Amino acid sequence: xxxTNFDLDxxxxxAAGMELGNFAKASKRLGRSxxxxxxxxxxxxxxxGTPIFRKAGRGLALTEAGETMLAYARRLLELNDEAVAxxxxxxxxxxxxxxxxxxxxxxxxxxxxxxxxxxHPRVRIEARVVRNIExxxxxxxxxxxxxxxxxxxxxxxxxETIGEVPMQWIGPASEPSPxxxxxxxxxxxxxxxAPCLLRxxxxxxxxxxxxxxxxxxxxxxxxxxxAATAAGLGITIRTPIGLPSKVGALAPGAAGLPPLPSLGxxxxxxxxxPNAATARLASLVLQSVRxxxxxxxxxxxxxxx
Length: 305
Prior knowledge:
This protein starts with 7 loop residues before the first helix and ends in a 9-residue tail after the last helix. The chain is of the alpha/beta class. Helix 5 links the parallel strand 3 and strand 4. It has helices spanning 8-20, 23-30, 34-48, 64-88, 109-119, 132-140, 197-208, 222-230, 276-296, and strands spanning 53-56, 59-62, 94-100, 123-129, 146-150, 159-166, 168-172, 187-192, 213-219, 236-238, 247-249, 262-269. Helix 1 (8-20) packs across helix 4 (64-88) and helix 2 (23-30) packs across helix 3. A five-stranded mixed beta sheet has the order 4-3-5-12-6, sandwiched between helices. It has a three-stranded antiparallel beta sheet with strand order 10-7-11. It has nine helices and twelve strands.
């Protein structure tokens, strides 16, 4: 029986389209015409031997086989890119200082460190997981080479917007919400210590909706915040990234909670033209974060090419 060899170039187009939610956007990113992208997707279905897309309104969604294909496509592309980097950058050495928000400490950092260390064993990484305000201060003063931070409209000399992430009200996963508008009681708000962008967003949203609130729990760390929220001590606000199983997002409008805006995510660089090791790590961070966003915020449907 002849074995099927998937075309990595086709898989890259497929993965890019799913990441962007639109194959027209993928064609622009990859420098291909929309007709060429459509031909690649047709080739992928032919190689798979089963439909990977289905109609969803005016767009497309993945079939069960398509979901499986996407997971393998990402793994194959990751291994391919890791192999290329390892072969082409054997002599890469030095050290890189990376800072990031606590939300990404368990979802992005292990993946980035593992992939980078395998490809570049002679490069040393110093990783620092701290609050947003410290990340910005450290990258602007040259104490960090790279910083992954939430956006508070502060821009640095060399920064890049990665995307917008929806904020969500978070409560216990297995218990009812500890508050409802009908109770007449102030909403118990669990929060990180000030200054905190998400805490400010929560209180602003509650004030605009004329909902009284009180600080029921304040923590210096995200771990403490998750423990308090899981125990029902209060409702908190975070993004879908890195949520532990003991807490869960409350449905929009649940218990009378007001809607929340999105939160920008940025990668800050200390220098416009960083050394090769820093540039490579920045590339891996961007790739891993985009994958985390796709996994945390599933695409319901997408436009065809």
